[in-house]
Write a structure and sequence with these properties.
The structure is a single chain. This protein is of the alpha/beta class. It is about 35% helix and about 25% strand. It has a single domain, classed as Rossmann fold. The protein contains ten helices and nine strands. The longest helix is centred in the C-terminal third of the chain and has 19 residues.
């Protein structure tokens, strides 16, 4: 691993590292905030998954999360949102290819060679973090938009791995909205049955762990009706008895102004769940 950046922040340290990923077969950057409590021993860790067009930088520079992570004594790990490199397939579109990995394991050419963000986030990344940094095995996961989709899917498919899950403006039913139809069709092919493994609404009925879902959604989000569709998740959770806290936040849009307004609530939620 190679350290790219290091900045003092709220008594802790915001770092960015680069390493070669076996799952992705490319170099990838990952940010980690270590709170001041990490100087005295291992701390719980929150994994944050970013949205379309993002890198590891967006969350760490715009969310203001470090203040709350320092207050509660948790680390925050934020990987890039897709594989990168000259030999990594891309598209002339913001919602497919680099910056749009959708946290799936692609099965279709040319994407299958590198686009395995699901395996990276679920397996390789936590193993790396737990081997190299002062963190415990207490994990939580969260994300925004495409990353909110990733967080929900990964938590639902991996019972027992995370203590808590939350999301900001997640794509809850990618099988039913344009962003998801485009990405899942390209990465997984046209067999819609394969899409269900990466669709939170489709996963709810058979979820074996009823981990409560905390979701914040802005009422003025320009993608609310066309891409996000939180009402579909609400119906699925009500139908199948899955605990859901869906908070519609008046006047908020899809931006990091929205995330910064409520990230303190989410970090407190995760800190409580990871407290031994």
């Amino acid at each position: 691993m190679q350290k790219i950046e290091s900045h003092a922040s709220f008594g802790g340290e915001q770092q960015v590292w680069q390493h070669h990923s076996q799952a992705l077969d490319c170099d990838i950057r990952v940010a980690i905030y270590l709170p001041p409590q990490a100087q005295d021993g291992p701390v719980p860790v929150l994994y944050w998954l970013s949205g379309l067009t993002c890198t590891e930088q967006n969350f760490i520079t715009k969310s203001g999360a470090q203040r709350y992570a320092a207050e509660h004594g948790i680390a925050i790990v934020c990987p890039d949102s897709s594989p990168r490199g000259d030999d990594v397939a891309d598209a002339d579109s913001y919602d497919l290819g680099k910056g749009a990995g959708f946290y799936v394991n692609a099965t279709q050419a040319p994407w299958a060679a590198h686009y395995r963000m699901y395996d990276y986030v679920v397996g390789e990344l936590p193993a790396l973090i737990e081997a190299h940094f002062p963190v415990t095995h207490a994990r939580a996961i969260s994300g925004h938009s495409m990353g909110g989709h990733g967080a929900l899917v990964i938590a639902l498919r991996n019972p027992g791995r995370y203590r808590s899950v939350s999301a900001f403006a997640p794509i809850v039913a990618p099988s039913q909205v344009p962003w998801g139809e485009k990405a899942l069709g390209a990465y997984l092919g046209e067999d819609h049955a394969a899409w269900k493994d990466y669709d939170a609404v489709a996963l709810i009925p058979d979820a074996t762990e009823r981990l409560p879902l905390l979701i914040d959604q802005g009422s003025a989000d320009e993608f609310l009706a066309s891409q996000l569709r939180p009402e579909l998740l609400d119906v699925a959770c009500r139908t199948h008895g899955h605990p859901l806290i869906l908070r519609m936040q008046p006047g908020h849009d899809h931006s990091y102004y929205f995330i910064a307004s409520f990230i303190g609530d989410h970090i407190a939620h995760h800190a409580e769940a990871m407290r031994d």
